[in-house]
Amino acid sequence: MDTKERILRAAMQAFSEKGFNGVSVDEIAKRAGVKKALIYYYFPSKDKIFKEVWDRSLSELEKHLFDEIENEKSYMKKLKGFLKAYIDFVTNRKVISEVINKERASVMSEDKWTDLKERYEGFLSKIASLIDEGKRYNAIYEDIDPMAAANLISGSMVHSEKPGILEKVISVIMRGILKG
Fold it and tell me: Can you tell me whether residue 106 is helix, strand or coil?
């Protein structure tokens, strides 16, 4: 693994545990096993490290969720595959999931994260498109707002040590948006 990758992985782990504000560049350097000056060679600031971690996290999440269902013809299989993939991601890729969950609120509300907010909104738009598709197939209630449903789905995907809780959350969401 090259140095830049080691720095990003160390930063991702730190951000997942402590959040952006709880982590210093010194801590990232220590976790990566490099000198602080070397971090600044690759990244001019902690903000730039976080931006790359955020973008990679969302890219990995999107790839996991949408590649899984890309060629599925049946809408219900596509929706179920998407939700199953989401549960799998949250359960098995806890570090990335924690980064997204810990920092989502600040990314969406702080002015300095405008580009990260746009990136996250793009992710939500992909989920909203999936909901819109269900409306076209008459599988989703017409009065369901796709972006609200996307926010609900994304916001509810928080890791829990309690077995089966994510599946129950998905069941509640499905009952609320699906016809029949």
Answer: helix
Q: State phi, psi for 59 to the nearest 5 degrees.
A: -65, -45
Q: Decide if 35 contacts 56 (C-beta within 8 A).
A: no
Q: Give CA–CA dist 33/16, Å, rounded.
A: 18
In a domain, 48, yes or no: no
User: In which domain, by residue range, is 31 found?
Assistant: 1-43
pTM value? Answer: 0.91
Cα separation, 47 vs 42, whole angstroms: 12
- Any domain includes 31: yes
Residues with Cβ within 8 Å of residue 29, at least 6 apart in sequence: 7, 10, 35, 36, 38, 39
CB 50 within 8 A of CB 71: no
Phi–psi pair at 39, nearest 5 degrees: -60, -45
Contact 116, 49 (CB under 8 A): no
At 108-167, the pLDDT tens digits run 999 999 999 999 999 999 999 999 999 999 999 999 999 999 999 999 888 777 778 888
Answer yes or no: do 69 and 7 share one domain.
Answer: no
Question: What sign for the dihedral angle of Cα 76, 68, 102, 124?
Answer: negative
On whether both 23 and 69 belong to a single domain, the answer is no
Residue 142 located in a structural domain? yes
CATH of the domain at 131: 1.10.357.10
